[in-house]
Amino acid sequence: MGPRQSGKSTLARAIAEAVPSHYFDLESPRDQLRLQNPELALGRLTGLVVLDEIQTRPDLFPVLRVLADRSDASARFLILGSAAPELMKHSAESLAGRIEYVDLHGFDLTETGPGTLERLWVRGGFPRSYLAESDAASVAWREGFVRTFLERDLPQFGIRVGAAAMRRFWTMLAHAHGQLWNAAELGRAMGLSDKTVRTYLDELSQTFMVRQLQPWFENIGKRQVKSPKIYLRDSGLLHHLMALETETQLHSHPKVGSSWEGFVLEQVLRQTRPTQAYFWATQGGAELDLLVFHEGRRLGYEFKYAERPRFTRSMRVAMEDLRLDSLLVICPGTAKASLASGVDVIGIEAFARFGHSA
Fold first, then answer.
1. DSSP letters for 164-204
2. Domain with CATH 3.40.50.300 in the chain
3. How far apart are CA 88 and CA 244, in angstroms?
């Protein structure tokens, strides 16, 4: 599962080349003809069977259930989906207990390696954006991606929202990146109801463009924030929608701290792969950027765009109220230090190499 152009097909073809396999691109008219009778066509195949762009053929899920349940099954299926909203529903209903999900996004720091932080942060992780020959070429690719996503992909996914309206909403979300969700404010700005902008948000979330980070509640006798925080999942698309094309423009922009927070959030979540992730905040101002539960431990993360972060009252309150086992403050540069008992600072590139154990 993952957005268009994130490398799903490239990875699947590499896997298919290494073993006996059959490849179906379900957007290809030729392959569509091959699957006019899907149970017959797929049932006689052996080895690995790859079905790319499965969201175009939801009728295949019941067939796959039948084939997966054969006692003499000699085929395994690798299914690729471009984040259609109904895809998870169809697969869960038809293939419960028979399927494993793997979320695939663009490049992260563990893949691009040391010395690539600025480029990855500015351009984002989509392979063609990151690998473009120049900043201008990367910007051009991202503009093409945004237009294609709005004008072609969303209608194919069954989402009936005008491209202009959705682009305006997406751009407004970019400027609210890292902030609490406020449906009333966005609805007033667009002249739409709270329910309509909520639908827009859910559609961008279901297509892997936006992350809604939910709040965590603790029984501590304090008023706590109950609205989710909103992040654009790819920093390159965030910067494009904010008209930031270069490192210089990004570093001088008032939203650079919010951009850093969202970028590092994605890096941490991809490396730690928690089943659930939250943020935490109180009405009194204490907050924690990320809370995850791992092997029975409570791990906290703060993302600071500062070379030498300091121990703050908010960190102390989070450690005490949430009973954190550890709190890791992730910043740019190469800093590595202890701020207090259980509270450590580390640079993002060191975290990418060593994870929480660094």
1. HHHHHHHHHHHHTTTEE--HHHHHHHHT--HHHHHHHHHHH
2. 8-95
3. 34
> Dihedral, CA atoms, 43, 23, 97, 5, nearest 10 degrees?
-160
The dihedral formed by the CA atoms of 157, 106, 230 and 200, expressed in degrees to the nearest 10: -10
Predicted TM-score (pTM) of this structure: 0.91
Instruction: Give CATH for domain 8-95.
Output: 3.40.50.300
Q: pLDDT tens across 81-138, in order?
A: 876 556 666 676 777 778 888 888 999 999 998 899 999 999 999 999 999 999 999 9
Cα 114 from Cα 116, distance rounded (Å) = 6
- Report the Cα 206 to chain-centroid distance in Å: 10
Alpha helices per DSSP H over 255-300: 256-272
Specify whether the CB–CB gap between 307 and 331 falls below 8 A.
yes
CA distance 64 to 94: 8
Q: Which two tokens stand for residue 60?
A: 């295949």
What phi, psi does 8 have (nearest 5°)? Answer: -60, -50
User: By three-state DSSP, how is residue 248 classified?
Assistant: helix
Contact 45, 22 (CB under 8 A): yes
pLDDT digits (tens, 9 = 90+) for 144-186: 999 999 998 888 777 778 899 999 999 999 999 999 999 999 9
Which two tokens mark 207?
């297509």
